[in-house]
Amino acid sequence: xxxxxxxxxNVGVLALAQALLLTTVVGGMAVSALAGRTxxxxxxxxxxxxxxxxxxxxxxxxxxxxxxxxFGRRSGFILGACLAVIGGVLAAFGIAERDFWxxxxxxxxxxxxxxxxxxxxxxxxxAANDQFRHRAMSWVIAAGVVAAFAxxxxxxxxxxxxxxxxxxTYAAMAVLGILSAGIVSxxxxxxxxxTLANAASARPLxxxxxxxxxxxxxxxxxxxxxxxxxxxxxxxxxxxDCGLGMELSRxxxxxxxxxxxxxxxFTGRVIQKFGAPRVAMAGLFLLTGHILVAVSGSEMLQFTSxxxxxxxxxNFTFLGGxxxxxxTHNPAERAKVQAINEFMVFGFSAFASLSAxxxxxxxxxxxxxxxxxxxxxxxxLILLPSVAPLRCPMMRSAPQEGR
Length: 403
What we know:
Layout: H1 3-39, H2 48-71, H3 73-96, H4 100-117, H5 120-127, H6 133-142, H7 144-158, H8 167-184, H9 196-201, H10 205-210, H11 212-241, H12 246-261, H13 264-274, H14 276-294, H15 300-325, H16 334-371, H17 373-383
């Protein structure tokens, strides 16, 4: 297999793996609260499994990066898929035995699967040449379009299967984990070459987190992700408060998920043409557009339009931040830098998800969205120097030898 065919094959495998990962996660989000409500007397605890889906990647993102640095991407991705199998089996047993905490533990393992799988986009960039790198990342993220339809469809089709409601859904997730393990086992990735110069110049963790390029990239990805999660989590509750039912909120969320992933078919080319910092800044403006539309009214049109803008804004900030991050380190620093990024992304996202209900209850939908202007303004200020990198010495990236 020549290098181009190997590159395309690897990116295709990673895109398929991404589709299975997000189908599993979206399916879990679609039914976890409903299933949890049938297992616990206190309705306030019913969202614990949803929280576990976000805490899982937060806990595993750092060890996942370290594991893959030592044993390789393929081994790490297979391990992550095995965690999905364990999670699906535990959740299914929790439903069968009416054990809420076992059910919640299953979601923690499914979330851990995402902690490993979120490195698919980095692996795609490492598998590609310089001309294809940004598009490879985008194509892998674009596979989430499949999950926008497959996740809810999986939850709906498998919900009545088995002797107990929802048991079939989690059994299906275990099967998806098995399929994912088989798919990622087909990867043929070369490890980035670490030269003696790279190893000698590798910075300590303190120096890495203090560098402007890393701060800009991590802030862009983590704040953009957290803003999206907080607004998305609060939306169905806000729609319910406005008298818009569950079916309407499901439609809005589906449009939102399409907004998140469909632009990925061209975001890579946009990044290649205009540069990652400018694309990330455009994402911040789109997220601001979500806020302006969201506070303009409480009809179906406003909720749908706002959530589509929220999805596209997330896409530009997340992919832009990822592309920026790739230019901040040499191969010897790869694992640390990527681990820092994922740790911050899911740390902020878990906090945002857990805060959404409290903020909506205490300040309301409009004020909740206006509050989001503060972190967006902070990130915009951080990014300002990077939109003209040739005039800003701080944006000079770390050496890229051996990439």
